[in-house]
Amino acid sequence: MEILRVENISKVYGSKKSDKQYMALSDISFKINAGDFVGVMGASGSGKTTLLNILGSIDTPTTGSYFIDGKDITSFKKNQLAIHRIKNIGFIFQDYNLLETMTLKENIILPLALNGYGASEMEKRLNELSKNLGIEKILDKYPYEVSGGEMQRTAACRALITSPKIILADEPTGNLDSKSGKALLDLLTFINEHYQATILMVTHDVFAASYCKKILFIRDGEIYNELYAGDNKKQFYESIIDVMSVLGGEIR
Alpha carbon 227 to chain centroid distance? Predict the structure, then answer.
């Protein structure tokens, strides 16, 4: 079942009057089905983050439309977008974006509280997710009291707590060492498979990208190529390196 459809999205920054315009995205179109785990790769400045911000309704396209679960998000008004972000989008950021003055539990259930859920429902969702994600014993701690890996698991739990239509991950392994990074990728795979969560992940990391089922490569604001994982993970990994070498992006 299709969960995300992007139709001819372009994003231009700057004013026509100043003649200083920058085309960040140019006529991008693609589809993502429910349960997909899709990576977005490209050189710095290719438009990856702009695309992620638009799909997360943090930014708006200059032209084009995108649909989540059949709804045209570009037609939403400001208050509708705010509700949409809380209910339908789960975010996992490189810097975790946890509130230091709140416990891990309070950080996780915040989206539910903002959406008016009752205490019993919040506890039910929290208990199941925190147990499955291995953080049930540290929920009363504050972000500064736990490791980077535990903070990232907390961020993943917060992203899942609303049962979102899609999870958007922005360089989630960027601040982690190799061991913690692999643990997070294993966690994202578990989330994708166990919860059938749809994940779109922007990454520079070839190893991280190799966990995806499909990769969209962006070059100069346009879709340059697509790769599908298939059954041979080693071959998929090497193919990602080949394409990134052509694009001139950093290979990690």
Answer: 18
Residue 251 CA to residue 239 CA, distance in Å, equals: 12
Q: Which of 80, 168, 163, 81 is nearest to 122 (CA)?
A: 163
* pTM (2 d.p.): 0.90
Looking at the domain assignment, is residue 214 inside a domain? yes
Is the residue at 252 inside a domain? Answer: no
Q: Please check whether residue 120 lies inside any domain of the structure.
A: yes
pLDDT range class, residue 148, cuts 50, 70, 90: confident
Q: Decide if 168 contacts 55 (C-beta within 8 A).
A: yes
Residue 118 belongs to some domain of the structure: yes
* Distance in angstroms (rounded) separating the CA atoms of residues 110 and 250: 36
pLDDT band at 137, cuts 50/70/90? Answer: very high
The tally of domains found in the chain comes to 1
* Residue 249 confidence class, pLDDT cut points 50, 70, 90: low
Residue with tokens 């953080």: 135
Is 201 in contact with 212 (CB distance < 8 Å)?
Answer: yes
Q: Which residues constitute the domain of residue 27?
A: 2-247
